[in-house]
From TrEMBL:
InterPro entries (alphabetical): NAD(P)-bd_dom_sf, Sc_DH/Rdtase_CS, SDR_fam
Protein family membership: Belongs to the short-chain dehydrogenases/reductases (SDR) family.
Organism, as annotated: Pseudonocardia alaniniphila
UniProt protein name: SDR family oxidoreductase
Organism domain of life: Bacteria
Length: 262
């Protein structure tokens, strides 16, 4: 029987993947047979992440892992990541827009507008730019799958991370528009995690993991591996009739009627 979740022979580009959810996604795709390019801003951290991926998920085969340092907000860095992926692996069938920033918390009336612009540029505009590049360089002719990392903050107001939430709401809408325009050859979906135990989200459980977990029906916070397995499913042939969808992965928090902590 054919394993529809097998990704052998496919090449993936995962942005913001030196740690946390992005790193877990890269590891999961490697474990299913894909080759991966990972990007991040800090070259040293990225190189260390690449070495760990080779050792832990690629069976020591360094030819299956490419690291390209650069800021997702830079047009030159985006172009380099896409170009080098295709030069190295010969294709680019999977794109995961994982990079996200959130330097603003609290009252919107105090929000610095330059910071607001930067959040939207990184979380929304850069994601679209990566899709455009992947489309023109490979996917437009050969097809592929895109997954955008959204958030439950893009589905319900939080009062805590309002600009981040607004940017993720925009990314969810962008996902739907792209799915409509790029089908049938390219599928575009999003995933919307609640609080996942990463350095990025640490402020959301700063008072303790047990307290933060209490409102969740599953009574725990998310792990990067939870999100990674969902993303791997969505980019595989097992999800071949799923596009334009935003899949909540939130431990049931939104099902309670709560807006959730993120």
């Amino acid at each position: 029987m054919t394993d529809l979740t097998d990704l052998s022979g496919r090449a993936a580009l995962i942005t913001g993947a030196s740690r946390g959810i992005g790193f877990a996604i890269a590891g999961e795709l490697l474990s299913r047979g894909a080759s991966v390019t990972i990007t991040a801003r800090k070259p040293d951290e990225l190189a260390a992440a690449g070495e760990k991926l080779v050792a832990d998920f690629a069976g020591g085969d360094a030819s299956r892992v490419l690291t390209v340092a650069g800021n997702a907000g830079s047009a030159e860095a985006r172009e380099e990541a896409v170009t080098r992926t295709i030069e190295t692996f010969g294709s680019l069938g999977i794109l995961v827009n994982n990079t996200g920033i959130n330097p603003i918390y609290g009252f919107l009336m105090d929000a610095d507008l330059d910071a607001v612009r930067k959040i939207f540029d990184t979380n929304v505009v850069a994601a679209l730019a990566f899709v455009q590049l992947a489309y023109k360089a490979w996917m437009g002719e050969h097809g592929g799958a895109v997954v955008n990392l959204a958030s439950t903050a893009g589905l319900r107001s939080t009062g805590v991370i309002p600009v981040y939430g607004a940017s993720k709401a925009a990314l969810i809408r962008l996902t739907e528009e792209l799915a409509w325009q790029l089908g049938p050859g390219i599928r575009v979906n999003a995933v919307a995690p609640s609080v996942v135990k990463t350095k990025f989200a640490s402020m959301l459980y700063a008072e303790g993991e047990e307290k933060a977990s209490e409102p969740f029906p599953m009574k725990r916070l998310g792990e990067p591996a939870d999100v990674a397995s969902l993303v791997a499913f969505l980019v595989s042939d097992a999800a071949s009739w799923i596009t334009g969808e935003t899949v909540r992965i939130d431990g049931g928090i939104l099902a309670t009627g709560s807006r959730g902590p993120a």
